[in-house]
Each structure stands twice: as structure tokens, then as C-alpha cells.
Amino acid sequence: xxxxxxxxxxxxxxxxxxxxxxxxxxxxxxxxxxxxxxxxxxxxxxxxxxxxxxxxxxxxxxxxxxxxxxxxxxxxxxxxxxxxxxxxxxxxxxxxxxxxxxxxxxxxxxxxxxxxxxxxxxxxxxxxxxxxxxxxxxxxxxxxxxxxxxxxxxxxxxxxxxxxxxxxxxxxxxxxxxxxxxxxxxxxxxxxxxxxxxxxxxxxxxxxxxxxxxxxxxxxxxxxxxxxxxxxxxxxxxxxxxxxxxxxxxxxxxxxxxxxxxxxxxxxxxxxxxxxxxxxxxxxxxxxxxxxxxxxxxxxxxxxxxx
Length: 307
Ligand code: CP
Ligand code: NVA
Prior knowledge:
Elements: H1 19-35, E1 47-52, H2 58-69, E2 73-78, H3 90-100, E3 103-107, H4 111-120, E4 125-127, H5 135-149, E5 160-164, H6 169-181, E6 184-188, H7 197-202, E7 207-210, H8 213-217, E8 222-225, H9 237-243, H10 251-254, E9 262-265, H11 277-280, H12 287-306
Parallel strand pairs: 1-2, 1-3, 3-4, 5-6, 5-8, 6-7, 8-9
Helix pairs in contact: 1-5, 1-12, 2-12, 3-4, 5-6, 5-12
This protein binds phosphoric acid mono(formamide)ester and norvaline (NVA).
């Protein structure tokens, strides 16, 4: 008997959510944080597959634990251990996995590969990081901002957020967050390392790119950074290290931010490159709360997609 395609919802980018929906999801993440392991089990009898073509610590572990705490199961399919690593067409893999699993969490290189999986798999597909974006990380980042500054802070047009460094997948997802919620985002990137121009345009005056880290952090309440060379860019490490001189988030730069500012970093971090050890380990750092919130935010996400 032929299979009837199922209706489903994906989470490929933050702009897949409306403002109220995103705020609702973050509110639910806060509830899951309080519920801990004792909450309801909306994933009973469901299995989440993690298709990872890049390395991961936080994303992999937080999704596996989230699925378990929601009463479901999970499994990891690393490309090197599967037929994906030997070139099996993605449309075949996606259709087969959709016959066994209830959700696919995918970390890969090109965003088009994620979109192809979402087209071929008739189960929810979640972006667990591509070269273009990392929306699951933003759920945790925005939850952390809500904890520190109140649930509606990021919806205020005068709420100042700074991004220092590469206009990479994380910078793009901060732009997506800006487009949905409306806070004020200033990104300091060296020339040649700007974020996605289309996303910048979509933020219509609420986000801008500058070349001076000091200008970006001036008065900021949230200061974000990330590695200078992302996964897949290892060969550019030396060139990038030269291009990003002066883009370290260190105590001197933090002097220009609001004294109540928090520092976010999705991790893994390189102390002494994009962030000084004193800042990462200092009182303004929220990075370990931020990392913890991956679990709570993804429980809210899985519940929304599968519950
Ligand atoms: N921040 C983040 O996504 O970490 P991992 O690469 O360890 O999953
Ligand atoms: N920009 C980094 C984020 C890692 C979580 C990368 O893509 O490697």
C-alpha cells in the first residue's frame, strides 16, 4: 500500500516563527526549566533521529536528553558511520529515515542540503546548524536574555544587542531574531566578513553593520561573539586570525558596554582569540546558563513540533 504523505512542520530558520509564537516558545522553555525531568511526556513512543555531518557536543547531547526527558527515544546518525558518508543520495536517506523516525534533527554544511532533507522527509526537520544559520542556539540565547532582562526585553526597539566578529551562521540567526522580535542589533565585522545581506535588509533599519567593535558595544546590554573560523573553515584559520585582529571581546571592550551587560558565546570558545578568558569566566558571562538553556528551549521546540 502506498504511503500517504503526512502534514508536518519544520524548524529550519527562526523566521519560521512569528513574534507571538516565538515568545510563547520561550515562555514554555522557562516552564520546562522549572519542570526539569518531572514534566509531561509528549514524545512517548516517538523517536528523534540526529543526522550530524559536523561535530557537536551541546546540540547533540541536549537533543538526546530532551527527547529522553520528554518520554521519547533518540539515535545519532553520524555521516562517517552511515551510508551518507559513502554518498547515498540525500533524497533516499531522508525518505527511508522518515519511515522509521518521528523527527529529524540535522547538522550539515550547505543550507540547501537541510532544505532537501526537509522536502523529502515527511516528518518534522530541525536545523541543528548549517553554514547559514543556527536557530536552535538562538532559542537558548533569547531564553537567557529573557531571564536576565525580562520576557519582553528583546521585543523593545531600544534594547541594544551587539555582535562582535564573524558575520557567520550565528550572526545570521541573530539577524533572524532581530527580524522577528525587533530589538536593536549592531554587528561589528571586519570588511569582507559581513552577515547575509538579505537578512540585514529584512531587519529594515533595526540592524546595522559597523567596522568598530567599540562602536558596536557602546551602551549594549548583550554582547555576543563566536569563533573566527567556523566548522568547515579550518583552512582559513590563519587568514582569519589576521583579519579579526582587534575583534576580541576583552575587559577593555566591555568598558564601553552598559555596566549591566551580559556576554554570550554559543561555545566552543577560543580564549585569547575572540574572547578573553577574564570575560568568559567573569561576572558578566552568561555562557553556561546559555548552554544549559539549549536543553529547556529544545524541549519546548520538540513539544511544539511533535507533542
Ligand atoms: N553551540 C553549539 O551548537 O555547540 P555544539 O557544536 O557543541 O553543538
Ligand atoms: N559558528 C560556529 C558555531 C558552532 C556552534 C560554527 O559553525 O562552527
